[in-house]
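worker-3 :: picked GntR family transcriptional regulator
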Amino acid sequence: MRPSTTERVRPGAASASTAVERVTGLVRDEILNGELEPGTPLREESAAARYGVSRHTVRAAFQRLVAERLATAEPYRGVRVTSFDAPQIIALQQLRAALEIEALRIAFARFGGTLPESVLGPARAAADAMEGAADGGPGGATDAAWREVERHHAEFHAALVAASDSPRIIEAHAAIGGELLLFVAHIRRHATVADLVEEHRRLLSELLERGPEAMRDHLEHSTRLLID
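worker-3 :: tokens ->
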């Protein structure tokens, strides 16, 4: 009897994969928490020593971060933490608009010109979770709280995109998920959690009043927030 794929995996290969996932997660957290500033070089040798792994493991982890667009790889410059300048912000927001506005256009058409509670409920729950994630302390939300806010923010927009029931749009939107987390990590310097929650609750109301164009205004607002 031929062994299954799982049975044929070497223990060393499984350990290496786990190490890559661990290092990827640790560096991802440092990027999204702002511990690694935009443009910071990611050095294989120092990371290998810091995390107690091989340079091959670190290289594989960095490649995953590049695939998530949390880092960029350039010839002769190596790997660096992604930085958003004005053209990059605009380009990302244009892509978001193409995906999210079209997803909502399809969703409104599917549901007869409105959005049912099956769509609004998960989005509203994500907005509530954003609010609940903030610790409310005098110093504002902690890094850990902001990470939760960023995650629920992604869930909010994913819920609206999912209403399109378009597999390719949903897949393309999921592919920029890492960039969106980093985008909100930049926004935290310019807005409070309360601001973010209020904007997204208002968006849900405006979607019912004005349709997909409300999403266009929402995205343009966040673009101006960073560029201005």
